[in-house]
Amino acid sequence: MKFVLATAAYNEEKFIERTMRSVVAQSLRPVKWVIVSDGSTDRTDEMVRSYAAQHEFISLHRITEKHARNFGAQVHAINTGYEKLKGLDFDFFGNVDADVALPPNYYASLAQKFDADAKLGLAGGFIHEDSGQGFRSRSTNNTQSVAHAIQLFRRQCFEEIGGYIALPYGGPDWVAELMARRLEWRVEAFPDLPVEHYRPSASAGGFIRGCYRQGRMDHSLGSLWLFEIVKCLRRIKERPILLGATARLLGFGYSHLIGAPRLIPPETVEYLRAEQGERLRTLFRIPSAAARGGGSQ
């Protein structure tokens, strides 16, 4: 498997060396890895240059123009990295965040999974975070969704969906998954590939703001009201108790009240709602229209 990687990095000196060590240690290395420093002011660039001097497949690209610091900036950096890579000979493209550590067999194992399934368009492992008693699988992990930090695409799939879309409230990974499935690519995360995530959890205030933003994100992508309510109810155990779920629902409701626009193509919104509707029918054991009609006209 020939693959390339891109990383968006902004002031990542605390974490990026772990990431670089883990990629260098891979049993299957990338053809090229572009680390895009988005105007870093700490030692990030220095550290990347040090590794690039020792490993030809690593290169640093620095963004110097001023721009807003938001979720769209990260996507812009990744897409900039892809532009630097797309002239090379490769079949797979991966995003890897600057605050993770991959197991040594990560890409070799994914290569086997892609080889075994020609329709697998997007794959990755499971995110593990430090619970205070060692790294454990994140509660939101599931086999049908790959975390943005560790997504690996079949190149054909990535180019068919048009790459990542920059969104003000986040969610480019979710949209990429939706668009891939809509185009009949399979998306799968594998529990046997644990990836350690090192960035510490946000403070309580940051957590609440983050949940509110996620509610606005859900609305911007076209989520159904009932699905959002059910999702929030299932997350009321998150800490701070109830506040996270409430903040997320408030963010969704505020966007609805002000008539905030959907930010992805209408056909992707329609596909998302169809998926959510099917999940709700399964949850509430409601038969589909085809089942109610006996499957024929």
Task: Report on the architecture of this protein.
- The protein has 297 residues and is an alpha/beta fold.
- The chain has two domains: 3-197, Spore Coat Polysaccharide Biosynthesis Protein SpsA, Chain A (Alpha-Beta Complex), CATH 3.90.550.10; 204-284, no CATH class.
- 43% of the residues lie in helices and 19% in strands.
- It is built from eleven helices and nine strands.
- It has helices at residues 16-24, 44-54, 71-85, 106-116, 155-160, 172-182, 204-221, 225-233, 243-257, 266-284, 289-292; strands spanning 3-9, 32-38, 58-63, 92-95, 100-101, 120-130, 135-137, 152-154, 186-197.
- Strands 1, 2, 3, 4, 5, 6, 7, 8 and 9 form a nine-stranded mixed beta sheet that branches.
- Helix 1 (16-24) links the parallel strand 1 (3-9) and strand 2.
- Helix 7 crosses helix 9 (243-257) and helix 8 packs antiparallel against helix 9.
- The longest helix has 19 residues, at 266-284.
- It is globular.
SSE series: EHEHEHEEHEEEHHEHHHHH
**What is the CATH H-level superfamily of the largest domain?**
Spore Coat Polysaccharide Biosynthesis Protein SpsA, Chain A
Helix count equals: 11
N-C termini distance:
47 Å
Report the sheet with the most strands, covering strand number, pairing sense and barrel closure. 9 strands, mixed
Radius of gyration: 20 Å
CATH topology grouping of the largest domain: Spore Coat Polysaccharide Biosynthesis Protein SpsA, Chain A
Q: Could you say how many structural domains there are in total?
A: 2
Query: Could you give the count of β-strands?
Result: 9
Proportion of residues in extended strands: 15-25%
Mean pLDDT: 90
Protein structure class? alpha/beta
Low-confidence stretches: none
Q: If classified by CATH, what would the architecture of the largest domain be?
A: Alpha-Beta Complex
In quaternary terms, these chains amount to single chain
Measured as a percent range, the helix fraction is 40-55%
